[in-house]
Amino acid sequence: MDLKKTQAAVNTITYNKAEIEKPTGNIYEAITIIAKRANQINSEIKKELIDKLDEFATYNDSLDEVFENKEQIEVSKYYEKLPKPHALAVEEWLKGDITFKE
Questions:
Q1: Distance between alpha carbon 3 and the CA centroid of its chain, in Å?
Q2: What is the C-alpha to C-alpha distance for residues 83 and 78, in angstroms, rounded to an integer?
Q3: Residue 39: band (very low, low, confident or very high) from pLDDT cuts 50, 70, 90
Q4: Tag placement on the chain: N or C end, fewer CB within 10 Å?
Q5: Rounded to a whole number, what is the distance in angstroms from the first to the last CA of the chain?
């Protein structure tokens, strides 16, 4: 998943209920599918963030020294500004990128 190419909303927006439930015919089933995809996206983003932050990790037993790493701060800010996983999942759902089986 390429997070830079996404058009998902960063802010809260209102979606048309009919568009959300159109693929399944049931709003609750559609929301369940979207929620499962949002959990998958969240796991992917979290793993990617942890991998990037591990590059900056220092393994000291001393807690006295705290280093501020500008690259680490920039990486954290980038991930904070990304759309939330549920917004990404809804965008995928509306584009028809999510497949499901009954």
A1: 8
A2: 10
A3: very high
A4: C
A5: 25
Are the C-beta atoms of 98 and 24 separated by less than 8 Å?
Answer: no
In angstroms, the CA 8 to CA 30 distance is 18
Alpha carbons 86 and 31: distance in angstroms, whole number = 10
Share of the chain above pLDDT 90, in %: 47
Give the residue-averaged pLDDT of 91-100: 91
The one-letter amino acid code at 20 reads: I
Q: Which pair of structure tokens corresponds to residue 82?
A: 């990304």
Q: How far apart are CA 61 and CA 71, in angstroms?
A: 22
Q: What are the residue ranges spanned by the domains of the chain?
A: 26-56+67-102
Tell me the mean pLDDT in the region 34-51: 93
**Residue pair 94/8 in contact by the 8 Å Cβ criterion:** no
